[in-house]
Amino acid sequence: MRNMTEVSTRSVRDVAVAAHLRRTTTLDVPEEFETWSVADLADWLHDTEDDPQVSDEDFYQARKAVQMLGVEDV
């Protein structure tokens, strides 16, 4: 039963991370963003960084969110 609780808690946390990013930035955060693979999250962050319309603050928030979702070394 312990593992089920950990998975459930992580899912709730991940949804909260994505919701916070949507609320606090002007970024277009895709639906089900929090369920993406680590590689997909890293690719999205890289594309976000390269977008000249993304502010430094929005990119900083995106990087924090992606790190919280499990992408290291970004």
| Unreliable segments of 5+ consecutive residues | none
Number of DSSP helices? 3
Radius of gyration: 13 Å
**How many beta-strand elements?**
0
Average pLDDT value? 87
Shape: globular
Q: Work out the count of structural domains.
A: 1
Largest sheet properties:
none
Order of helices and strands: HHH
Structural class: mainly alpha
Give the DSSP E fraction (strand runs of 2 or more residues). under 5%
Helix content: 55-70%
Q: Span from first to last CA? A: 33 Å
SSE map:
Layout: H1 2-24, H2 38-50, H3 56-68
Helix pairs in contact: 1-3, 2-3
What does this entry look like structurally?
It is built from 3 helices and no strands. The chain is mainly α. It has one domain (2-68). The model has no long low-confidence stretch (mean pLDDT 87).
Provide a compact summary of the structure.
Helices cover 66% and strands 0% of the residues.
Features:
74 residues, 66% helix, globular, 3 helices, mainly alpha, single chain
